[in-house]
Every structure is written in C-alpha cells, then in structure tokens.
Amino acid sequence: MRLIIPKISNFYHVSLYVCDEFISTIDALQVGEICSTHRVLDKLLLKYLQYGSMPSWNKNGSACFSIAMGIDSIPGVNTLLQSNLRILYLFDAWPDKHTRIEKIVKHLKIDLLLVSSSQSASMLQVRLPRTKVLFCPEACKVEEYKCKPLIDRKIDLLQLGRRYEPVHKALIADSGLNYLYQKESGSLTFASQDLLKQGFADSKLSLCFPKTMTHPVESGGVETVTNRYFQSMASKCLVIGKAPQELIQIFGYNPVVELDLKDPLGHVKKILDNITDYESFIEHNYTILKRDHTWLNRWLFIRNEIKKLS
C-alpha cells in the first residue's frame, strides 16, 4: 500500500520543527511520498468536520500518515479523506481538547491515532472504541544537535518556554548566574531553530518542568514528556528540574537531576560548582537517547503498527 505523508507548505512557525524533524527522517528512508498541503482547504475541511462526516470520497488505495501539532492544524485533510488507511499523530492532546479530538477523529474515520501522552492515549481510547489509540512519545533527530565540552559553555542555565514561577523567581535573584529564559509569555528565546540548537550547545544546565507544575489547570492533570527534554539530552546538557513519570518509564531510570524546590538557587550553584561530576551521567543519557529515542525509533514502531492494519 502506497504511503503518503502530508507536509505543511508555504507556512512556518518555530514550533513546527518537531514535525519537520520527523518528516525528514521518514523522507530519508524513502518509504513514502511527501506531499504538499493546502492550509486554507485543510482549515475549511476541519471546520466542516466539526459537524459531521464528509460525503464519500473516491479512495486511492493509499495509506495517509498525517503528523500534526494539534487537532486544529492537521495537514492534508483531503489526502486523509481519499485514503483507505488513515493514521494521525498528534503532539498536543491535552484534556481540554479531547472532545474536539473525538469529533474530528470520528468524522475523519481515523484508523490509528497516535498521541505523545500516555494518559491522553488511555483517555481517548475510551472515547474512540473504533479507533486504535496508542502512546508514541516525542523524540528528536540527535545527529542535528550540537555539543560542546561543559567547561566551554557560556550559559549556566537555560529554560525554554513555560516557566515554573516559584523556581524562576528564586533564580533571577542572583545576578551572577548566567540564566537565559523567555522574557515575556509568547516571545521566542531563539528566533530560529539553528539559534536554538546553538543555545542548547552553549548551555550547561537545561531546566525542565512538566506542564502539571507550570500550568496545572491547563494540563488537566496530564503529565507528559515534551521534546525539550530530548533536545537537552541531545545537546549533552545536564537536565535539571522534574522528570515526568513517562520519561522515567521509557528510559528505565530517571535521567533528570531533581531540583531541590526548597532551595533551587543553592542547588543550582552546587551543581555548577561540581559540573564535571555529572559528565558520565550526561553521556549515559545521550547514549540511551541515541539508541532508543530518535525519530527513527518512533517511525519503526509506527511502521509496525501500520503493517498490522494493512
């Protein structure tokens, strides 16, 4: 069965690098056809699908695998509708979107739904008994990330995206700490993916917390591992903060140094003073990441699931 992978064209946002990394991995394997999409058409079709299924389209005998950041930005909706086998991979599947995800998946008649949160996968499987729903965590394209020796890195601590405010306020109290973070909500710490990779490569510590801590109401109680943890390890940063239980489960151990929330600044200083003591731990994280948590690993898992349905 011919495999088609739609890719968003003529539009770019920094968040789409996750999709792009995965699609480029699949493309390099030459296992399917990457097709361009029409954003306006996709939006119109998704709006229609809120209210019911589309009329029958002529099937082309293909399988369509669409990778989307969220349920409102699915690329290649028309391609999905023309395919005999329909696979959708969603990165953002928070509980407040589950009702909408349920409607769209039912109306699109998705055969296999993959989501990057194990808790959301379980919740959505209950809502979607006719669709196979599986947990497929995010990953990264390890070879595209840069690394420097720890002693040559200029940034002491990097925190990208969502901040855990109690810890953040404690850290900014020390003007001697070279701490890089998002200045305003919605702003970008790095303007491009290349600059982001350079920033990771120049950082000793990467501060990561799950959304259940930074935005507990928005998370709906769902704790999941995001791409930021994988990017940090691919850049050989020491990840500090809090590990989601999912991350511990898929690694088989905790790859994060759990930060002392009672004295975060003191703990960070102690780690920085003894940073070379963590080199073997950083290397071990990198080895496990490269072995088990690349986009190639995720594709091999998904390919096997597609074969079961073909």
UniProtKB/TrEMBL annotation:
Q: Name the chain's protein.
A: Glycosyl transferases group 1
